[in-house]
Amino acid sequence: MFRVITVCGLGVGSSLILKMTVDTAMSQLGVDCVIEHWDMGTIKGQKCDMIVTTESFRENFAGQDNVVFVNNIMDVNEVKENISAFLDEKS
Amino acid sequence: MIEKMLTEERIAVGVECASWREAVKASGSLLVKAEDVDEPFIQSMIEVVEEFGPYMILAPELAFFHGRPGKSVHKTCLSLITLKDTVRFTDFNGEKIKAAFAFGAIDSKSHIEALKELAKLLQNEEFLGLVRNIGDKDKILEIIKCVCST
């Protein structure tokens, strides 16, 4: 199963909201997946197919090629577009 | 559910804040006053911004301050302030806000239903218009009740 992790600073608020948005986006894209939400502190070493987080954390993921960045975690369309571009690149 | 959290005494409109730190304190102190959290939680919310930047601006001009779950949080809780004047995150990229939530969680999972309702609220244009423009508190409460019952 395609494994997705959403990440924010604490893994409490924003990553959970982002998880809901990603969930909607992925079902609209027709991709089966499991989504978990984590915080910046515990994400290191986690294996997954795709990480989704906000632009503010770009520096923290330098050198990683499985990360999708978004500006507005509430915006299903933006999240969907960015994930779609990532999936196209990977396939 | 969040209509029970975001009650009259946990909302303040037209608050004067000169900085984002003051906005955190003003929104957080509503939760302290309601005895949902203890004072140290406010500092925790400030530290999250200092450490990670203002990534908690969820909708344009609307922040969602939150801190680490821990012993200073007694229950899942939420407050809202609308600002008299725009506040900028001058020590970051000048991001601006006109309103802010403060949110306390007891762990990383038990508040998922509350956040689902909050997400619905943040997609309500009338609500966003009211909180960005020092709208009437009763109207804000009315929309919260409306959105949560659908």
3D shape of chain A = globular
Question: Helices and strands of chain B, in N-to-C order?
Answer: HEHHEEEEHHH
Taking all Cα atoms into account, the compactness measure Rg of chain B is 14 Å
Main beta sheet strand tally, sense and closure of chain B: 5 strands, mixed
Average pLDDT, all residues of chain B = 93
- The CATH topology of chain A: Rossmann fold
**Considering the protein shown, what is the CATH homologous superfamily of chain B?**
Mannitol-specific EII, Chain A
Domain count of chain B: the total is 1
| Total of helices of chain B | 6
Number of E-state strands of chain A:
4
Q: Please identify, by name, the CATH architecture of chain B.
A: 3-Layer(aba) Sandwich
Determine the strand fraction of chain B and express it as a percent band.
15-25%
Backbone structural class of chain A: alpha/beta
Report the biggest beta sheet of chain A as strand number plus sense, adding barrel if it closes.
Answer: 4 strands, parallel
Distance from N terminus to C terminus of chain A (CA atoms, Å) equals 16 Å
Separation of the first and last Cα atoms of chain B: 11 Å
* Overall helicity of chain A: 25-40%
Can you describe this structure?
- The complex is a heterodimer of chains A (91) and B (150).
- Chain A is α/β, with parallel strands linked by helices and 91 residues long.
- In chain A, helix 1 links the parallel strand 1 and strand 2.
- In chain A, 34% of the residues lie in helices and 25% in strands.
- Chain A has a single domain, classed as Response regulator (Rossmann fold).
- The radius of gyration of chain A is 12 Å and the shape is globular.
- Chain B is α/β, with parallel strands linked by helices and 150 residues long.
- Chain B has one domain: 3-Layer(aba) Sandwich (Mannitol-specific EII, Chain A), CATH 3.40.930.10.
- A 5-stranded mixed beta sheet of chain B has the order 1-4-5-3-2, sandwiched between helices.
- In chain B, a hairpin with a 7-residue loop joins strand 4 and strand 5.
- In chain B, helix 2 packs antiparallel against helix 3 and helix 5 packs antiparallel against helix 6.
- The radius of gyration of chain B is 14 Å and the shape is globular.
- Chain B starts with a helix and ends with a helix.
- The mean pLDDT of chain B is 93.
- Chains A and B meet through helix 1 of A and helix 3 and helix 4 of B.
